[in-house]
Design goal:
The structure holds two protein chains of two kinds. Chain A is mostly helical. Chain A has 19 helices and three strands. The chains are: A mainly alpha, B alpha+beta.
């Protein structure tokens, strides 16, 4: 991607995601919100908004061609259908792009482009939770928050100084630097811009409320919107956030505690009939299943064992692909075995990965590796034999033969 | 005289920041000795792959070979700042854990996405049993990069060589030159 793309992307994401300070505890106002933008809206070419859309259209072109884009018609169609269910007549105004980024994040551009990161799809448990996040982003678009913020800053004399500061940060963060330790990422650029272009706390509150309204009208289970935040709170508490500060969503949003409370209050205010509320867990899992293994591998490659351990364990507890989550929990224990008992925990986890309706057969092999690390050659040997039995055409047979030789 | 000494100092210091042609003679890095062809340039340390000895033909954004030497217990392959949590070598690592270490290091360094990996193969390298693999990943600039790597342990430390280049054009172009380096390797 060009440096220009990264500059614009950083600007876009910061404007969509950022907010400065936590929302203070107030009695929430649950007044009905309405769209501030007509359907099929196109700005006049000559004005500020027209220029912004022109820049974002170029960004969208690069995203469309990006190697990070998960260019899968079925998956994009599924998310588009959720957006349409939420937005009704505004459905044609939104375009969804799914990016392979292992962090919880989503962004909405003023021109109707929405980006969803794979780390978010890995973490939400069902369609209602996904809809709550998509609805929040749609709230920013329908209430024109990005444009309001852009207009506000444009009128300030210091705007250009801030813009060049932020753009320089995004460009530097967006490039590739093989000098490790200065490893590049779009996320550092977002953090810089987030401090400059941030939605007001009122915008964030509005987006939460609007998303919840859309959820209610579309008859999704409203209790799930608060659950998204409680899940993320638990993950942050489990993660080593001092050394693995989570980029993306939390770098630019206020703490989720207030949001969880507000959304829970709104759900109670609406007194939704739970019997009719749609969760969509089966449909969601069916759509995500082809990608889950890759997204779990991406999470492992982040080398954040505390966060990964919690994430896989909690996903397993929620019966989301339990065998797959057990396998990757085993991987975390194996790769980060620094405490006594980790290898035993890895073996147990791999065992659970093999015991279910969707067994992960390569867990036999990983059991063999753990036994080998525990210097238990007989059990290692047997595990490798079980692996070859289960996967006779294994691509890694040369290494398995090596392991069998050294464990005889 | 002082001016001359200052001038020489400045010249020497500036040379540390320049690319220097690598002679086509045996080169030694810790206990690893290799004999390259005449095409490589030594990358200044501040531009190398995490300060590991690195050679390139055109530029590190296109192609490079990097050498992991004398990596001991608890050490990462690259000398990173505290902010970046890279995995570390453990003396009890299995072969595929060592290649995982290389793969994870590259992916994290580039904030990349893994596309594919080949199965690890046991091989003979530098007179020892070693393990080689290759993997491909995308980076933020939409370029697909391919890495070949060979690793082993020697006197309890990890030694290895990795070759990274853009999958299109550069990787196949210098693959044989990388293999020349690998085939010439000795552990002293």
């Amino acid at each position: 991607m060009s440096a220009g793309f990264h500059r614009a992307l950083g600007l876009l994401l910061a404007m969509s995601l950022a907010a400065p300070l936590p929302v203070s505890a107030q009695e929430p106002d649950f007044g009905e919100l309405v769209p501030l933008i007509p359907t099929r809206y196109q700005p006049p070419d000559a004005d500020t908004e027209g220029g912004l859309w022109l820049a974002l259209d170029r960004v969208e072109g690069e995203i469309r061609r990006s190697a990070a884009r998960i260019n899968n018609v079925a998956l994009e169609t599924y998310l588009q259908e959720i957006v349409c269910r939420l937005s009704q007549e505004y459905c044609p105004d939104f375009r969804i792009y799914i990016l392979r980024k292992p962090y919880f994040n989503a962004a909405m551009a003023p021109n109707g482009m929405m980006m969803v990161w794979s780390g978010l799809l890995l973490r939400v448990r069902n369609e209602a939770q996904l809809a709550s996040v998509l609805g929040h982003e749609m709230g920013h678009y329908l209430r024109r928050h990005s444009l309001q913020q852009f207009e506000d800053y444009k009128n300030k004399s210091i705007f250009m100084a801030f813009l060049s500061l932020g753009l320089a940060g995004a460009a530097a963060a967006g490039g590739i630097d093989p000098g490790v330790g200065r490893a590049a990422g779009d996320l550092a650029g977002i953090g810089i811009l987030a401090s400059i272009f941030s939605f007001s706390r009122e915008h964030e509150r509005e987006a939460d409320l609007y998303g919840a309204q859309l959820l209610h009208k579309a008859r999704y289970d409203m209790s799930q919107s608060a659950r998204v935040w409680s899940q993320l709170i638990e993950e942050e508490e489990a993660a080593d956030i001092d050394t693995h500060r989570l980029p993306g969503f939390f770098a630019s949003h206020p703490p989720p505690d207030d949001r969880e409370a507000s959304l829970r209050a709104y759900a109670e205010h609406q007194q939704q009939d739970d019997a009719g509320a749609y969760l969509g867990d089966e449909a969601f899992r069916q759509q995500m299943r082809p990608f889950i293994e890759q997204w779990c591998e991406d999470q492992i490659l982040l080398n954040q064992p505390g966060r990964s351990r919690h994430l896989f364990a909690s996903l397993r507890s929620d019966s989301a692909w339990p065998e797959m989550m057990s396998y990757y929990l085993g991987e975390v224990h194996r790769r980060d075995a620094q405490e006594p008992g980790e290898y035993e925990q890895a073996l147990r986890a791999y065992g659970r990965a093999l015991d279910g309706t969707d067994p992960v057969l390569k867990a036999h092999r990983q059991q063999g590796m753990v036994y080998l690390k525990m210097k238990d050659k007989p059990n290692a040997h047997q595990a490798f034999l079980r692996y070859l039995d289960a996967v006779p055409d294994a691509e890694d047979k040369a290494m398995i033969d090596y392991y069998l030789e050294i464990t005889q | 005289m002082r001016i001359l000494l200052a001038f020489l100092l400045i010249v020497n210091l500036s040379a540390c920041n320049q690319y220097v042609r690598v002679d086509a003679t045996e080169q030694t890095m810790d206990q690893l000795a290799v004999t390259p062809g005449a095409i490589w340039n030594k990358v200044p340390s501040q531009a190398s792959f995490g300060y590991a000895p690195t050679w390139t033909v055109n530029d590190t954004s296109l192609d490079f070979v990097t050498f992991f030497t004398d990596i001991g217990e608890g050490e990462a392959l690259v000398d990173a700042t505290k902010k970046e949590q890279f995995p570390v070598f453990r003396a009890d690592m299995l072969p595929e854990e060592m290649t995982e270490l290389v793969e994870t290091t590259f992916i994290k360094a580039y904030n990349g996405n893994l596309i594919s990996r080949e199965p690890v193969q046991p091989v003979k390298w530098a007179g020892r049993t070693a393990f080689e693999t290759s993997f491909e990943f995308t980076t933020e600039d939409n370029v697909i990069r391919k890495v070949n790597t060979v690793v082993t342990t020697y006197e309890g430390k990890l030694y290895g060589i990795s070759y990274q280049a853009t999958r299109m054009h550069y990787h196949p172009r210098y693959l044989n030159d990388y293999r020349q380096i690998v085939n010439s390797s000795r552990l002293l």
